[in-house]
Amino acid sequence: MSAPARAYLDWNASAPLRPEAREALLRALDRFGNPSSPHREGREARNLVEASREGVAGFLGCGPGEVVFTSGGTEANNLALAALAAASPRQIFAAPRIEHPSVLRPLEALTRQGWTARWLPVGEDGRAELAGVAPDLGFGALQAANGETGALQPLGLAAETFGALSIPWHCDGVQAWGRVPLCPRALGCATAALSGHKLGAPTGIGALFVRSGTPVEPLLRGGPQERGRRAGTENVAGIAALAAACRAAAADRDADARWTSELRERLVAGAREVFSGLWVNGPEDRDQRLPNTASLSFPGLEGEVLVQALDLAGVAVSAGSACASGAGGPSEVLAAMGLPPWRARGALRVSLGPTTRPEEVERFLAELGRVVSTLGGGR
User: Fold this and answer.
1) Which residue among 218, 265, 296, 350 has the highest number of C-beta atoms inside a 10 angstrom radius?
2) Which residue in 171, 183, 189, 323 is the catalytic one?
3) Mean pLDDT for the chain?
4) Would you call 323 a catalytic residue per the annotation?
5) Contacts of 164 (CB under 8 A, 6+ apart)
């Protein structure tokens, strides 16, 4: 008798490869020419890259010349922040401490170089407040959505606040693309990051929106690829797969949001039945959170222990951002929200996707009940 299929409920860490992306990836592997070469093989590869750039630009709501292909969201965030810092006349930035590590670590590096950090306050609901934004800033940063709590950030207010002061700002849109509407050009931000594997493209490919007129000094120096903004031979197959994933995500976004939202509500309600002392972290208002994400705290239990026990039971969840795992302490995000350490230590993140099945949610709830009972928690 075969073992039951695993339940994968960690989509915010990485999404399964979309069929459309897989097909585009396999087709593009035959385009082996270097896009910078003038011969036919090179031209074929270049044509595919530029056609894909137009597809990604359509998804981002910008012009093709405003798209820079990168190795993923981390490089996109680092490239954006380095560009804004290099162009800034003042060494002061503003950002909340709920940002992804690929934003926080570069910002912390700036403080070691003499920059002043103005850390924006964060409410208990996980949403940043813009009270610290002032005319003396060099630049700002605000994510679109938090990958741990699902909290959607006040981007409209950010656009208004930064725009009124003519302060350039960066938006890490990695967790929002394909789940909620997001248009960096309409928001007036200078840069915005995209990661392919959150959308169902392969790992190792991403993009950065760079508003026309925003200067960018490359992190990787070498050839003139990406209009001199990112050196290195383009990942042709990855770029083609990213464009395919973007098209599919755009077409399915509203239906996917409704599906995952319904499953999330069932999951949270079921978890409350299993553990009466459950805390749900993040906004209560569904219009202020990602439709697919639930951050659950189990007082008296350790989130990492729950993750390991559920993994052994065939269910994949996480205790927070995959990029912050192994840090050796409670979630930076939950700490920035002012939550007590016991609540942060007992947190699980469950994130769903378009192909998540109701049976997977029920599997999670059943195994959660067994695990909690074994560990001595519950009602």
Assistant:
1) 350
2) 323
3) 95
4) yes
5) none
